[in-house]
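Researcher: Please predict.
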Amino acid sequence: MISQFTPEIEGDITLRNLYKFPSDVYPIGRLDKDSEGLLILSNDPKLNSIILNPVNKFNKTYWVQVEGNVDLNFLKNFSKGVQIKLKDKFYTTKPCEVILLNPAPETPERIPPIRTRKNIPTSWIEVKLHEGKNRQIRKMCAILGYPVLRIIRIAVGKIKIENLQPGEFRKLTKSEIMSGIN
């Protein structure tokens, strides 16, 4: 599913396929087509501005599965910032938090499943960043030699995905929204 209401190409599954949301509801931020997890939908433009404005340094937290056994050098370099290419220019990502998740988190089955190779181990990391460049985590991991297999956004600020399964949603209360963004 793509995180918008209008298909990019014929046959795309969109938020419109999930539920009949009111016409003034829109996603705050995006997940690329290959990523999963928490997406906040709102009809409040002020909330959109608060969450997306980089001045507010709003953390977004992701679980990321990569090919290979992640080492301390990877974690150190990733957290310092990595030079990636954006629109034919180089950009150095801002410092962020990254930790190795061991044991791996319990996650819903992915459809379609990720590619797996019997002889190549995988690692899970948790990444917290407050910027969101196009395919940033994928590019950072690739530059450091660890191709991404799966990305799941688990939190935006203090708002967490909790036990929602793919395709499920729930309405947040006003107090949950206010405590999640403060």
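Model: The mean pLDDT is 90.
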